[in-house]
């Protein structure tokens, strides 16, 4: 006899694949943030650079929080679709990270 | 442009997307979400490239270095904004049972990345150092 929980789950493992996609995205975000932090560690940092670096780290933490929330919700057997607020937050966080990079170019 | 502005309104009205049409099979929504994430990763990779050009090519002339970094960063921003816009439009199209929106963006991004890559090749071959 088959386990009823196993029958209820999608054989295509869509929620798991989506969770792994979020994980890959947090890794990409981590790499970009690490490059931003590295800039401050190497060029005798000014105060403005330190502020930008702190902002990058905050954005990274925010991104991790959004991803973590979504990954928790994906644990359900029949997950709800992604909410627009999470999608917009993730995209605007990425944009803000790019703005930090632009600020670092000119300081 | 008009569709972009309409999409923009949807970004900030979280409930609106869910009110329209019927909820599609959750697997379609998840596939749409993964596509969104793939575009977001592309954006993050471009932004990482912008950071890297600034840091790992210190011998380049200032203008060239900043120009290349800005091109990558602008491409990254466009990619992130387009990711969420396309996601909203696909989600809405699926709910209404319409065709998925067509997009010129992948071609434009491809051309932009090719131009940046060619510029880098030229810089490496001719050694435009400051």
TrEMBL record, chain A:
InterPro entries, alphabetically? DUF202
Q: How does it sit in the membrane?
A: Multi-pass membrane protein
Q: Where in the cell is it found?
A: Endomembrane system
Does the entry feature the keyword Acyltransferase, yes or no?
no
Keywords linked to the UniProt accession? Membrane, Transmembrane, Transmembrane helix
GO terms for cellular component: endomembrane system
Q: One Pfam family of this protein, by short name?
A: DUF202
**What region holds the DUF202 domain?**
10-71
Q: Which domain of life is it from?
A: Bacteria
| Chain segments annotated as transmembrane | 21-41, 47-66, 86-106
Q: State what protein this is by name.
A: DUF202 domain-containing protein
Organism listed in the record: Streptomyces silvensis
From TrEMBL, chain B:
Query: Cellular component terms, GO, for this chain's entry?
Result: plasma membrane
Can you tell me where the transmembrane regions are?
Answer: 36-56, 62-84, 105-128
Q: Which residues form the DUF202 domain?
A: 27-93
> What UniProt keywords apply to this chain's record, in alphabetical order?
Cell membrane, Membrane, Transmembrane, Transmembrane helix
Q: Does the keyword Lipoprotein apply?
A: no
Task: Tell me what this protein is called.
Answer: DUF202 domain-containing protein
> What membrane topology is annotated for this entry?
Multi-pass membrane protein
Q: Name one Pfam family in it.
A: DUF202
């Amino acid at each position: 006899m088959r386990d009823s929980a196993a029958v209820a789950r999608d054989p295509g493992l869509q929620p798991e694949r989506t969770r792994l996609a979020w994980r890959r995205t947090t890794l990409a975000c981590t790499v970009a943030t690490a490059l931003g932090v590295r800039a401050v560690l190497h060029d005798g940092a000014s105060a403005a650079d330190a502020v930008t670096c702190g902002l990058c780290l905050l954005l990274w933490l925010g991104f991790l929080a959004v991803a973590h929330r979504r990954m928790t919700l994906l644990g359900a057997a029949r997950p709800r679709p992604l909410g627009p607020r999470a999608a917009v937050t993730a995209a605007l966080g990425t944009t803000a990270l790019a703005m930090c990079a632009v600020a670092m170019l000119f300081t | 442009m008009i569709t972009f502005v309409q999409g923009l309104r949807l970004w900030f009205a979280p409930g609106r997307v869910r009110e329209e049409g019927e909820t599609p099979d959750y697997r379609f929504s998840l596939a749409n979400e993964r596509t969104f994430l793939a575009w977001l990763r592309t954006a993050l990779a471009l932004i990482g490239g912008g950071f890297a050009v600034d840091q790992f090519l210190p011998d380049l002339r200032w203008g060239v270095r900043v120009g290349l970094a800005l091109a990558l960063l602008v491409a990254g921003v466009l990619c992130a904004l387009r990711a969420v816009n396309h996601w909203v439009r696909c989600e809405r199209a699926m709910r209404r049972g319409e065709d998925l929106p067509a997009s010129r963006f992948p071609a434009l991004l491809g051309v932009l990345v090719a131009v940046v890559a060619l510029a880098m090749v030229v810089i490496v071959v001719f050694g435009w150092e400051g």
